[in-house]
Design a protein that fits this description.
This protein is 34% helix and 23% strand. By secondary structure, the chain is α/β, with parallel strands linked by helices. It has three domains: 3-242, Glutamine Phosphoribosylpyrophosphate, subunit 1, domain 1; 245-449, Glucose-6-phosphate isomerase like protein, domain 1 (Rossmann fold, 3-Layer(aba) Sandwich), CATH 3.40.50; 451-598, Glucose-6-phosphate isomerase like protein, domain 1 (Rossmann fold), CATH 3.40.50.10490. It has an eight-stranded antiparallel β-sheet, with helices on one face. The protein has a six-stranded antiparallel β-sheet with strand order 5-6-7-8-12-13. It has a five-stranded parallel β-sheet with strand order 18-17-19-20-21, sandwiched between helices. The protein binds 5-amino-5-deoxy-1-O-phosphono-D-mannitol.
């Protein structure tokens, strides 16, 4: 996720671009850059790091010019650096492009362009766009963009300017947001409404593949083939604070709702569907040699550790390989045994968690090979691991992790399934079945979110319970751990998770009529066991919420409330079954008057022990 802006009008563009980028910094803060048409030439300035570093870089010069584009980056392809910052230009530096999204066929386009003599200055997928536009440029930048779009696969919001065509910006989107703000004597584009509100409240929302051509005094709209289209103007009523959160009350709720897209982004580029569907992890350098491992060891902290617990079950189920999972702060201080054929999977949203890095370094020293799953390109974990698989979740602002967790699960499944396929513990037909199930997940997540009112209502009735227990078996145990953590960190309710089979070994002593028990019931072969556990806590006065599948009547009559999720294979279900608990924790937090984005005593990234 990145932020893009563009301005054409009668004022100085540079301060307007920088100001608008400030409103988009939540979308990415690895680097920032601008390109301004100044006295007949394109002036490009960029800087690694937060926007303030770009501001410092341009503070000693005056870049005159009333048209330009800008970008704030959340790195996906290539580490954060000056060279990888946007805008990117063609070889001659006459065409400048800013991009938000992922060009999935960039490697193919790159080699094609290289065979035509283009040399690249960055590791980004975006740079190919600038060169392709130049390749198709015959004196009309709009036509060149239209031709280029025909060759791009993936998601994009783009803004393009050309030195020899002063006074117009070409903008287009597909699967990434872009809004056009209509001003008086000026027009402006941005990834998101907050960046526009200081200049105008009249906006056009671009649809997929629609092109906007912005001039100082008008905006033309075209379809993807270059034919004119009519657009309706909308008036924005929200205030700026609400707009930064996309209209949601909190970042956490926004991030919960971003999961369908984040999951689709994390999955899409790793699946090929020419002939039989298959998983492709070559981008991370994962080949058959990795599947010869003798053991998989997973380490992480907090929510990322819960993704690791799901990973243990998935690796054992799909790849029939011995798999251990441990909390990084435990792992680093016990005396673990290494085998040169061990593979380590280290999971961390930030890639900077102190204990997680220490565990990784220990394993490396012991001779193990490391696969990192992280959300942050260029993080310490990403730099030091042997292979890196990125979760393409975009920046996660709320302290409580939501979209980072479900995209971590998506990565874990992709690796575990590919392991199984390479080790021949699952055949091609089974693999295709699971890929189909993974592809259905984003749509199914949307359906759960559409029913969030049911969870909100249940939270309004139960938010003041003094204790909450989450129980489940196998994959549901892992989701119980994550659900209990979510509830405790933002609502401050005392909540614990346990494997349902442990109920009679201790936790049942605490159950009384002040207790909420959430029973996660998605492991079909164990429904009757869960039903007995539910009856045991009900008999002691607990209120019980069951999370199970649509169309499943097994728990009707026993539970006080049943929340249903779309059916999926038992192993894959955790990506879906955690969403009701995320929503429950959020609504309880709000009901209790807390700020779910900034829970007391917690920090987003734990970079010290
Ligand atoms: O950045 P990391 O994934 O390494 O962070 C690990 C934990 O601190 C983190 O998952 C924490 O538990 C979450 N904020 C919980 O929502």
């Amino acid at each position: 996720m990145c932020g893009i802006v563009g301005y054409v009008g009668d004022k100085e563009a540079t301060p307007i671009l920088v100001n608008a980028l400030k409103k988009l910094e939540y979308r990415g803060y690895d680097s920032a850059g601008i390109a301004v048409l100044s006295e007949g030439s394109l002036v490009v300035r960029k800087a690694k790091g937060a926007l303030k570093f770009l501001e410092q870089r341009i503070s000693t010069e005056i870049i005159r010019g009333s048209m330009g584009i800008g970008h704030t980056r959340w790195a996906t392809h290539g580490e954060p650096s000056d060279a990888n910052s946007h805008p990117h230009t063609d070889v001659a530096g006459k065409i400048a492009v800013v991009h938000n999204g992922i060009i999935e066929n960039h490697a193919k386009l790159k080699s094609w362009l290289a065979s035509h003599g283009v040399s690249f200055r960055s590791q980004t997928d975006t740079e190919v766009i600038a060169h392709l536009i130049d390749f198709h440029y015959n004196g009309d930048i709009v036509e060149a963009v239209v031709e280029t779009l025909k060759r791009l696969e993936g998601s994009y919001a783009l803004a393009v300017i050309c030195e020899s065509e002063p006074g117009r910006i070409v903008a287009v989107r597909k699967d990434s947001p872009l809004v056009v703000g209509a001003g008086t004597g000026e027009n402006i584009i941005a990834s998101d409404v907050p960046a526009l509100l200081e200049y105008t409240r009249d906006v056009y929302y671009l649809q997929d593949r629609e092109i906007a051509v912005l001039y100082r005094d008008r905006v033309d709209f075209l379809d993807g083939d270059g034919a004119p289209v009519e657009k309706e103007l909308s008036h924005v009523e929200w205030d700026v604070a609400a707009a930064e959160k996309g209209g949601y009350e909190h970042f956490m709720l926004k991030e919960i709702h971003e999961q369908p897209k984040a999951l689709a982004d994390t999955l899409r580029a790793r699946i090929r569907a020419n002939g039989a569907k298959s998983i492709h992890l070559e981008e991370i350098g994962f080949d058959a040699s990795w599947a010869e491992a003798g053991r998989v060891m997973i380490t992480a902290c907090g929510t990322a550790w819960h993704a690791g617990v799901v990973g243990k079950y998935a690796f054992e189920r799909f790849a029939r390989i011995p798999t251990d999972v441990d909390i990084a702060s435990e792992y680093r201080y016990r005396s673990p045994l290494f085998n040169p054929k061990d593979i380590f999977i280290i999971i961390s949203q930030s890639g900077e968690t102190a204990d997680t890095l220490a565990a990784m370094r220990m394993a490396k020293k012991g001779g193990a090979r490391i696969i990192a799953i992280t959300n942050v390109v260029g993080s310490t974990l990403a730099r030091e691991a042997d292979l890196v698989m990125y979760t393409w979740a975009g920046p996660e602002i709320a302290v409580a992790s939501t979209k980072a967790f479900t995209t971590q699960l998506m990565c874990v499944y992709l690796i575990a399934l590919q392991f199984g396929y390479l080790r021949k513990t699952i055949d091609g037909e089974t693999l295709t079945r699971y890929i189909d199930a993974l592809e259905a997940i984003p749509g199914q997540a949307e359906r759960i979110l559409a029913n969030k009112g049911d969870i909100q209502r249940f939270a309004s009735l139960s938010f003041n319970k003094t204790k909450a227990f989450f129980m489940g078996r196998l994959f549901d145990f892992a989701i119980s751990l994550e659900s209990a953590l979510k509830l405790k960190e933002i609502s401050y309710t005392h909540s614990e998770a346990f494997a349902a089979g442990e109920l009679k070994h201790g936790p049942i002593a605490l159950v009384d009529d002040a207790t909420l028990v959430v029973a996660v019931c998605t492991q079909r072969a164990l429904f009757d066991k869960m039903d007995s556990n539910i009856k045991e806590v009900k008999a002691r006065g607990a209120t019980v919420l069951v999370i199970t599948y649509e169309g499943e009547s097994f728990f009707d009559g026993t539970a006080d409330e049943v929340f249903r999720i779309p059916p999926a294979p038992d192993e894959i279900t955790p990506i879906l079954s955690v969403i009701p608990s995320q929503l429950y924790a959020y609504y309880c937090s709000v009901q209790r008057g807390n700020d779910p984005d900034k829970p007391r005593n917690l920090a987003k990234s734990v970079t010290v022990e």
